[in-house]
Amino acid sequence: xxxxxxxxxxxxxxxxxxxxxxxxxxxxxxxxxxxxxxxxxxxxxxxxxxxxxxxxxxxxxxxxxxxxxxxxxxxxxxxxxxxxxxxxxxxxxxxxxxxxxxxxxxxxxxxxxxxxxxxxxxxxxxxxxxxxxxxxxxxxxxxxxxxxxxxxxxxxxxxxxxxxxxxxxxxxxxxxxxxxxxxxxxxxxxxxxxxxxxxx
Length: 200
Ligand code: ADP
Ligand code: 5GP
Description:
By secondary structure, this protein is an alpha/beta fold. Helices cover 40% and strands 24% of the residues. The protein has helices at 20-30, 60-68, 87-95, 106-115, 129-139, 144-158, 173-188, and strands spanning 2-4, 9-13, 34-36, 39-41, 55-57, 72-78, 81-86, 99-103, 120-125, 166-169, 194-196. The strands form 3 sheets. A 5-stranded parallel β-sheet has the order 3-8-2-9-10, sandwiched between helices. A hairpin with a 2-residue loop joins strand 6 (72-78) and strand 7 (81-86). The structure holds adenosine-5'-diphosphate and guanosine-5'-monophosphate. Residues 14, 16-22, 135, 138-139, 170, 172-173, 176 line the site of adenosine-5'-diphosphate.
């Protein structure tokens, strides 16, 4: 018995290739109360992607228009492309008690932490830089130039780890998923989120 209030806004950040997408997918499979916030991006669609699933793929002019309309909770340039979290993907769902996950870079993560202090922030990190590089290469979604840019940017992003509430090692998918579930389970029990009704 009990009454849930607002939903949880779960911010998942970490350098490219650390496993954000992989772990978010596992979390949503495990707990269907979580919905993914689909961001806008100006980067090109990858072969395995679909419009409105991973992203809304838009051009620079549309991105500028959305900024003018205050449609973004946050937006940033990441690895040479623009990305933005839509207010419409987040606010109403949280108000209705749904849980929402953001897969966003560190700049975006810090902006959301400021704007929505009640969010739960998780930073994913790899066992080593070599393993990060290996995972990024094995994914085969970026050119050599893009891989180098992402690996260089990773160094700077790691310096911001301490700004996050939780630091999650992604060594194996199984262990990392368990760690993420532990965070979510504990957060769900917070008194700020849930008021139990104790029967007589
Ligand atoms: P991100 O969303 O952070 O850029 P991905 O989830 O796409 O990262 O993961 C990067 C690559 O590494 C993918 O090919 C994914 O299958 C792989 N991967 C993710 N986690 C692990 C892990 N624990 N062990 C081995 N490979 C992993
Ligand atoms: P990718 O191009 O690999 O899908 O994503 C590149 C980076 O952009 C990732 O670090 C991802 O978390 C980040 N990203 C995706 N959507 C958003 C967003 O809406 N805002 C911000 N700031 N970063 C985002």
